[in-house]
Amino acid sequence: MEYPLTFINLSWAEIGIFENTAFPLASLRKEDEPIEKAVERYVIGYMAFWNIAFIKKRMIYPSLQDDVIRKRGQDKIRQYVERHLPIEPFPKFYLVFLNQPQIGCDADGFSDVFCM
Which of 12, 48, 86, 94 could make a disulfide contact with 18, Cβ separation 3.0–4.6 Å? Predict the structure, then answer.
């Protein structure tokens, strides 16, 4: 079954977003801000607010911009969503870190899927 996920590629993570009409993704954006920057700001702010992770921009390692790696990250998020279906009305952000040793990634370079 296909779920309405939008994927955002950051240099250090793959983000899958379950969007709904009550809280569209565009509502996160400031005027003239690219959606990638808005999502990155939201994700880092969320993690800091809930003390999930303290990430400093200078400590984030840019990952390879390889389509195969991105696809594997997206597949990992899709598998997670199939097992943990999102509930309306809240949007859900699903995050997979790519090759970030300070977070703790598996041997394949992917973190667990985090749901926000």
Answer: 86
